[in-house]
Design a protein that fits this description.
The protein has about 350 residues and is of the alpha/beta class. Helices cover about 40% and strands about 15% of the residues. The strands form two sheets. The chain has a six-stranded parallel sheet with strand order 2-1-3-4-5-11, sandwiched between helices. The chain has a six-stranded mixed sheet with strand order 7-6-8-9-10-12, sandwiched between helices. The longest helix has 17 residues. GO terms for molecular function: DNA-binding transcription factor activity; transcription cis-regulatory region binding.
Length: about 350
């Protein structure tokens, strides 16, 4: 970058890109933090002078003191995945003598944007988050980053935001799930999903499509059913209508609450699982093994994902990690149970 024009908007993110450092490191260097080396501080100050960086005095004054608090922003707490991820995060936060504030967006973009706006006041030192399903505009996230507060995504991430990301291989997991149903004898497999923009949804749909295509099965668009992202009886009705008209013999459910809706829909229609329709779901639900019948699941490493997200965040906060943002992919596991049995 060669810009020195004062009309250019130069912020901490600009300096971070120029020096290939994190915005958290830039922020600490500008504040002369003790845990940033003198050489790094000098590089940052030289770049700030060269690029005519003018600090946001108000934001800087708010960030002068560490709050020893981390924000955990998640769509919901009822989902087993998120509760297990929080346990993983807490396993790292507690020994560091930090506190956590848990924010529930209820899978709503407006609530998420409002929460991040509040956090820019300096209430927390860092953020670990999984975005709402209807988050498309990411300006609120980028604005928070510009204050120097590091953000680590897990599970539901924003592809256009430069931040550390902890994900699972959703494409491959959906491919494996669909292939499992094919191997169990299914020939008309439907994907039950929710509306939204997170990369996990598109990756799971693409994995489903690829598995069918690789097995020479024509992909019917009517085989993809979109439900609400909320827990409600409306989803049961949507799935009942699909089961009655498309008559699938296999279902891949992309999120946890759709497993419950699918089981209820089958029960109301007097369809037997797995005899009439086989079901597999992305879920960490601990009761999956005692459902009637026990549910075949794609099990994500939720605890380890939360733990890894917290470790990376503290690496950023301490300055131990000053490399460019990383994306860590952790494998999920198929747990076969009676809901997909071919017997």
């Amino acid at each position: 970058m060669t810009s020195g024009n004062k009309s250019d908007k130069v912020n901490m993110k600009t300096l971070a890109a120029e020096l290939k450092l994190s915005t958290a490191t830039i922020s600490k260097a500008l504040r002369d933090s003790y845990d940033i080396g003198q050489e790094t501080k000098q590089r940052v100050m030289e770049a700030a002078r060269r690029l005519n960086y003018v600090p946001n005095v108000y934001a800087s004054s708010l960030r002068r003191q560490s709050s020893n608090t981390i924000a955990i922003i998640i769509p919901e707490i009822a989902d087993s995945f998120f509760s297990q991820a929080i346990n993983g995060i807490e396993s790292i936060i507690a020994p560091e003598k930090y506190h956590s504030l848990i924010y529930l967006t209820h899978d709503d973009y407006q609530r998420e944007a409002s929460m991040l706006s509040d956090l820019a006041s300096g209430r927390v030192d860092g953020v670990i988050m999984s975005v709402a399903s209807n988050t498309e505009d990411t300006s609120h996230i980028k604005t928070l980053q510009e204050t120097g507060i590091p953000i680590v995504f897990f599970d539901r991430v924003c592809e256009d935001v430069n931040a550390d990301k902890i994900i699972t291989d959703d494409f491959n997991s959906a491919y494996i799930a669909t292939s499992h149903l094919l191997q169990s004898g299914c020939k008309n497999i439907s994907l039950i999903t929710i509306s939204g923009f997170p990369s996990i949804l598109s990756a799971r749909e693409q994995g489903y499509r690829k598995a069918l295509a690789d097995n020479g099965i024509t992909i019917e668009e009517t085989g993809i059913v979109t439900c609400s992202n909320k827990y409600n009886t409306e989803n049961v009705g949507i799935i009942k209508e699909h089961l009655s008209t498309a008559m699938p013999d296999g279902i891949v459910a992309t999120v946890e609450h759709l497993a419950t809706s699918t089981y209820l829909a089958c029960d109301e229609l007097k369809l037997k699982i797995p005899d009439d329709v086989k079901v597999i779901c992305f879920t960490n639900q601990i009761t999956a093994a005692i459902l009637n019948p026990p549910l075949t699941t794609i099990l994500q490493p939720a605890y380890d994902m939360g733990k890894q997200a917290a470790e990376i965040l503290f690496g950023r906060l301490s300055g131990r990690i000053i490399t460019t943002e990383q994306e860590l992919v952790m494998p999920s596991q198929l747990i076969a149970r009676a809901s997909t049995s071919s017997n």
